[in-house]
Structure formats: structure tokens, C-alpha cells
């Protein structure tokens, strides 16, 4: 868990703004940076006289406005308190947080992987039921191959392998179509599959917030279609592995399919499309 208190900090994507950090991630709440007026400024005064100078002007002890950047150490909020406070180390830490071009924090790889596992379980169960319904011979071919192997019937084994290959093509097409419909339905409506909902992340275009349009959603599934291409599907596992691991070293935390579609996975939900 983050050791940095919630409060207003320099916006990593815009030096003219402050952005609210909720203790876990950046929020969408921003405010313009404000400096004290000349009459309020305590620049040049010894630290011990700064609070007194404010009291002399107002008749009461008044803290320097939060967010101004002019507070003394004693007036800054401490750990667990709300307010604008940055040590040099904190400022550097905040600027190291990766965000989209408009300042939305990117989802870490761990959250993306956990969301993928949840969606994978859902898709696996649903795909099994669909294959039982639409490609029943796929499982029957497996059983016949096992029986032929048990009987050491080489001719039957060769025949079963040919049959199984044909059924595998049908099964692959059914499962890919279902996964594509599953993803596109969620990406274009809420921008969150059930896995992403559970982890509090969403997918968006790199240049604009909101759910994906249909063309972008289809582009995001193009890379997975390689598994259906003859003579390429056998090497798809390597592409699949690289695609999943790519955000670990990519400066924009994009997987390969994100680069194809020009999308990014970010923290939080996406604003709904206007009707």
C-alpha cells in the first residue's frame, strides 16, 4: 500500500495544475495552481516570523493557503493528513507514475494479469459449453483417439488424428468468435470486461476517454486471429506470451494488441458515451 498521504500534488502531466491523489491512485479531480498575492507572501522572512507576519495582516493566526507552494515545514500536513505537501522524494515519486497523455494513471501489469485470469476462467467455462453444443464431435474424436491408442491400432490412430485436426479447426473458430463477441460487447459499452470490473481498471483509446468504438475494438482482437491462420497457429503461443508480457517493459504499459489498436488500460472506469 502507498505510504504517500492523500492530497493535492503537482499534476505529472500538466505543471499548471494540481491533481488529487486519493492515497492509492490519481483521481480525475484537478485544480489550477495558485500562488499567494504579494501582500500574502512571506518570501524572505525568517521561518519563525512567517506565521507572525500572516497574523499581523489578518489579526489572527492564519495558515498560508494550501496548494500555494509557500508553506513552511511546520505548516505542511503530516503523514495521514490531507493537503498539499511534497518533499523532493515525493515529487519525484509522483512524476514517475505512468499516465496517459491526459494524466490518467495506467493500470499496473499485475492488475491486468489478474483481470485476464478472471476473464479466462469465464471464457473457458462458456467455451466448453458452446463446444459441447456446436462441435460435439471434437470431444468424441478425442475419445476415439484414446481408444485407438489403447488398442495399438496405428491405422485407426492416423485416421483419428485427421478427424481430430478437422474438429480442432471448428472448435478454434467457435471459441475465438465467442471470445471476440465477449470482449467487444464489454469494450464498446462499459470499457470493462468482468475481470477488469473486479480489478477496477478499464480500456480506452490513447487519445480520448470513454468506451472503445467498434473499429478500435475489432483492431484490438486482430492479433488473436493469428491462431486461426494455417501454418501460423502453431507458433501463436510465442506471440501470445510476448503480447502478455510486453507491458512489463513498455513505457506506455501497452501490450502488443494495444499497440495495434492504439489503446491503453487505465485505473478506474470510463465515462459513458453521451446518447
From TrEMBL:
Its main location: membrane. It is found in: Cell membrane. It is a multi-pass membrane protein. It holds the Pfam family RDD. The chain crosses the membrane at residues 113-135, 168-187, 228-249. Residues 106-261 form the RDD domain. Residues 71-82 have a biased composition (Low complexity). Residues 30-82 are annotated as: Disordered. InterPro entries: DUF2510, Pra-immunoreactive, RDD. It comes from the Bacteria. Residues 30-55 have a biased composition (Polar residues). Keywords: Cell membrane, Membrane, Transmembrane, Transmembrane helix. Residues 7-38 form the DUF2510 domain. This is RDD family membrane protein YckC. It comes from Terrabacter lapilli. The lineage of its organism: Bacteria, Bacillati, Actinomycetota, Actinomycetes, Micrococcales.
Amino acid at each position: 500500500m502507498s505510504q504517500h498521504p492523500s492530497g493535492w500534488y503537482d499534476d505529472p502531466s500538466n505543471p499548471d495544475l494540481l491533481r488529487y491523489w486519493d492515497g492509492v491512485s490519481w483521481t480525475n479531480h484537478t485544480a489550477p495552481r495558485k500562488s499567494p498575492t504579494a501582500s500574502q507572501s512571506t518570501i524572505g522572512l525568517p521561518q519563525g516570523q512567517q506565521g507572525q507576519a500572516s497574523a499581523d495582516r489578518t489579526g489572527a493566526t492564519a495558515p498560508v493557503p494550501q496548494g500555494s507552494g509557500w508553506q513552511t515545514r511546520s505548516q505542511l500536513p503530516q503523514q495521514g493528513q490531507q493537503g498539499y505537501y511534497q518533499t523532493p522524494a515525493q515529487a519525484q515519486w509522483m512524476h514517475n507514475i505512468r499516465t496517459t497523455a491526459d494524466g490518467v494513471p495506467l493500470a499496473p501489469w499485475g492488475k491486468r494479469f489478474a483481470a485476464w485470469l478472471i476473464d479466462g476462467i469465464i471464457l473457458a467455462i462458456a467455451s466448453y459449453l458452446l463446444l459441447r453444443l456446436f462441435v460435439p464431435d471434437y470431444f468424441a474424436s478425442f475419445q476415439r483417439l484414446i481408444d485407438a491408442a489403447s488398442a495399438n491400432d496405428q491405422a485407426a490412430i492416423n485416421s483419428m488424428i485427421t478427424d481430430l485436426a478437422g474438429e480442432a479447426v471448428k472448435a478454434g473458430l467457435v471459441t475465438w468468435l465467442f471470445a471476440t463477441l465477449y470482449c467487444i460487447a464489454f469494450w464498446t459499452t462499459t470499457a470493462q470486461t468482468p475481470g477488469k470490473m473486479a480489478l477496477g481498471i478499464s480500456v480506452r483509446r490513447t487519445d480520448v476517454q470513454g468506451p472503445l468504438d467498434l473499429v478500435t475494438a475489432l483492431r484490438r482482437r486482430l492479433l488473436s486471429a493469428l491462431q486461426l491462420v494455417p501454418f501460423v497457429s502453431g507458433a501463436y503461443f510465442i506471440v501470445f506470451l510476448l503480447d502478455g508480457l510486453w507491458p512489463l517493459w513498455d513505457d506506455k504499459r501497452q501490450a502488443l494488441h494495444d499497440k495495434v489498436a492504439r489503446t491503453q488500460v487505465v485505473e478506474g472506469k470510463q465515462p459513458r458515451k453521451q446518447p
